[in-house]
Design brief:
binds zinc ion; Zinc Finger, Delta Prime, domain 3; alpha/beta; about 625 residues; Helicase, Ruva Protein, domain 3; 28 helices; five-stranded parallel β-sheet; Rossmann fold; three-stranded mixed β-sheet
Amino acid sequence: MEEYIVSARKYRPTSFDAVVGQNALTTTLKNAIASGKLAHAYLFCGPRGVGKTTCARIFAKTINCLHPLPNHEACNQCESCMAFNEQRSLNIHELDAASNNSVDDIRQLIEQVHIPPQVGKYKVFIIDEVHMLSTAAFNAFLKTLEEPPAHVIFILATTEKHKLLPTILSRCQIYDFNRMSPQNTVEHLKSVAEKEGIRYETEALNIIAQKADGGMRDALSIFDQVASYTQGNITYEKTIENLNVLDYEYYFKLTDHFLKNEVAPCMLLFNEILEHGFEGSHFIAGLASHFRDLMICKDPSTLSLLEVNGNVRNRYQEQAKKCNEKFLYKAIKLCNDCDLNYRISKNRRLLVEITLIQLAQLTEDDDVSSGRSPELTLKPIFQTAGTQSPAVTQRVTQNQSDKHPTQQNTNTSVPTENKQQAYAHQPADATTKLRNPLPSQETEITKIPTIKKGTFGPSIKRSFTEPEQSMATKNTIGQTTSDKNTAFEKRTDFDDEDYLVTEKDICFYWHEFANLLPQEETAMAKRMKIIQPRLLHDETFEVVVDNDQVKAYMQQIAPRIQSHMRKQLHNRKITMEVRVAENNEKTRIYSKPELFVAMAKKNPNLLKLKEAFGLELT
Ligand SMILES: [Zn+2]
């Protein structure tokens, strides 16, 4: 029997041109080789399985090739190239710092550095996962890294650039590797499948690409796994079964029901999904990206962002035609709120179900729910015959709908006076926002206070100021109707008020902003992600940076960050301050032990706890 080689190894690229999805980078490397301007140390950063080590090996082979081709690729025929391809070249040394991170390992490597190459011009030392080197090993290495002999080139590779000391970073030419786009991955998988004589459905390869999340090595491993499971015929159905992926068929069906305002079938489908063993959070995230994909289909200019191919693409376009944009925006918002609240929710299933009900009611009487953001209101699913006109909108708090499913209907029939008392009995909870709670005397329409997004979203509304709060309490022990009116009218003003912000919110939207930055600002995005903004007081947050240059740049984009924060957090006063770190002050958190030290500074009891139990940090 023929020896089985995994696809990731069998189809490992052997020339720069064969490297998938890193064109800009391989071109730069080729140009450097062509012009003979080689640095003595390179740092390859990027997620796992995107070609860092592969590129390092190709680079080593190419600079040692005795007869390079006119396109500056290695010839693959000369003695040096053959040695490389047969993995017997003495000009390449690979050290995996994840398992060899001691000073001795580095000393051995340094000894090798001083021996000149026998064949070819350069000795290349590849240190993988370089961030794993111990501090002592780093120190032993620094001097050699700074002034290596002329025949030596170091290529350091890491998935976690932020863990590297600035002293290392400043000595290297840095290359950032991209995640693979799903299109690139799918195309590559197709070519592998064709070479291997494996039949496939494009949708199945899409699923594999999604599951691999930008890593080609992972994609190929999953591909091997699925190919063996499906015995060489990779169908969509078998693939989702093997990878335990939720069928997108559910999302198409659900969206159709939402558009027809049918609640019951949505509940049944959700139940089916849970019975298949899927997590609610997984489902709701999938639903959100389904809506996102539909939204992208609405506009030809964003169509290229749709990461699926083939038939599914057409189905997305068809369903997108049926949804209006307002529905999609609101639906995405609802799913996102549900996702944010999922972890803290005590009744997760109910949370998802409420979201499904709200989704199914989005297209009902569009005119009622106009406004910037979706109103999180629940309307009765079951109408009691004859008691109410369709124009009446029932708004209930989550608790009410939860505990007293019938109370909402009885409320409509209580006389006005009692109703007003009912409002007064609503808890003046800081998280509950009342919106036009009291009907004006002329209108007959009954409205019950509703829970607004403050409760669902990450922010909460500023709590009532003291005097207002006491007033609200007084109302419960009975005052004249007109007094109550003014109290509630005051509360309606809160619509224009700013939401309270927390440091967690700031950090969340800080990362979100970084992720939204366009490709040409990737460097900035990466820098932002390792910075932890701190909330100074109510609306001001502070960003501590390494030097004046970064500070200037931060200040330049500060207005954009501020406006993003203000919009997302519904607070018009959020202000960002930038400051250069003082001596010994860290701008980022490096590791868990350091995090512990930082926490212990705030609360010394932690240290006592650690000592009392003899705990050790790993
Ligand atoms: Zn060659």
